[in-house]
Amino acid sequence: MNTQVTRSWLTDLRVFKQKRVWIIFMLGMASGFPWVMIGSALSAWLQEGGLERSVIGYFGAVFAVYSINVFWSPLIDRVQLPGLSRWLGQRRSWMFTCQLVIVLCCMALSQLDLIGQLTTVGVLALTLATASSTQDVAIDAFRIESFGEDEPRLQSAGAAMATAGWWTGYSGLGAIPFFLVDGTTWQWQDAYIVLGLIMAVIAFLVLFIPEPKRLDFAFQQEREMHYQEKLAHLSNRSRKVITWLTVTIVEPVAEFFRRNGVKLALSVLLFIFLFKVGEAFLGRMSIVFYKEIGFTNDEIGLYSKLINWWVTIFFAVAGSLVNLRLGIVRGLFIGGLAMASSNLFFSWIALSGPNTNMLLAAVVIDGFTGAWSTVAFVAFISLLCHRSFTATQYALMASLGTLGRTVLAAYSGVVVDWLDGDWALFFLLTALMVLPSLLFLFLIRKQLTELELSYHDKQHDQQRS
């Protein structure tokens, strides 16, 4: 490798020394950790309670709130929480409040009998998921507003560290309840007390991070003036209310379609909806698969959580550096194909039986492909956002992606039952699920590449000026 290339890679790595980037990593942990509470830990608790696979799959429907949080995301932009917003700022006050709700839900779950109070467990899981998805809107807005429009490298690093942080919360911290329950007298209710205490520590740390400066968008003000003029015939109060609702809720969607055109916009949204479906099917049933195939809770915690955690952190950073070289669109193609191929390794495990060496290989490969594709996916969505409506447009596209991952994946247990427990065939189907999204990406690749180039040209011009 020549000296110039080496220096270029070192320059890319320096962005990870920024304090802002590490704050995003911590907030990523806060975002990923609740998925343990309503995902892997709850699935294991339900499975050990003797519930059917289809019931476990249906419990995954609580994740659907992540796909509809866009409907209340404007409130996080506009509504100030009494007392807290003045003390903590708009973003941190919402994050802190949601985290307290999550802590309370964990403590409530720790007091329940799973079989006798299954409905209450479901309600608390839904409440926890709602608080977590609302927290995510505030965290995404915090991340985007932490970096200027003229800092593309920091935006890419932010996406990588958000991904690494998410997996630290989901896999690193997510291994804790499995180690606590396996081989001890601890019950899953006891584990939820620990999960709640960990979330309380994260909420405490949020009190000490700096609030990002809110950007004053000239385009948003221009649209407000536009609607004020069109509604001049109304009373002052009616005009203000309608203008606020239109600019906050309607204009972000309208601007996205105006800027990209209806055909390209719909193709992009379909790609976002379908891209992570196969991965979600695999993830939703992975814990059930591990336990049915014969792996212990300790092995699940070690390989699926701890090792996958470090693999994902490493490849999230590496993937962001590679995507800077290849471009986001190429990175998505390669990451999507690799993600689909990695699912086939789980079919091999299903055919050969519980082998920890094969599980290690599967975790490494899946962590590599998942991290690469996720970082590219987050950067891709960020690229499509207009800076005047970043938080709302990001929430819209992220919610659409989550909708495909959660609503459709809720039927993952039904699919396994329909296949009579044929896990090898199930994982083959999850590999094929990514192909429709890559077809949409292939059809619009030229327009997206031009958009990506124009984005970087604009950033370069801003840096030169």
TrEMBL record:
Q: SUPFAM superfamilies, from UniProt?
A: MFS general substrate transporter
Any one GO MF annotation of this record: transmembrane transporter activity
**Matching NCBIfam families:** 2A0125
Its transmembrane ranges are 21-43, 55-72, 159-179, 191-209, 264-287, 307-324, 331-351, 357-382, 394-411, 423-444
Q: Which Gene3D superfamilies match?
A: MFS general substrate transporter like domains (1.20.1250.20)
Question: What is the recorded membrane topology of this protein?
Answer: Multi-pass membrane protein
As for subcellular location, the record says:
Membrane
User: Domain Major facilitator superfamily (MFS) profile: where?
Assistant: 20-448
Which GO terms of the cellular component aspect does the record hold?
Answer: membrane
InterPro entries linked to this entry: AmpG_permease/AT-1, MFS_dom, MFS_trans_sf
Keywords from UniProt, A to Z, are: Membrane, Transmembrane, Transmembrane helix, Transport
The primary location reported for this protein is membrane
Query: Is the keyword DNA damage assigned to this protein?
Result: no
Lineage: superkingdom: Bacteria
Name assigned to this protein: MFS transporter, PAT family, beta-lactamase induction signal transducer AmpG
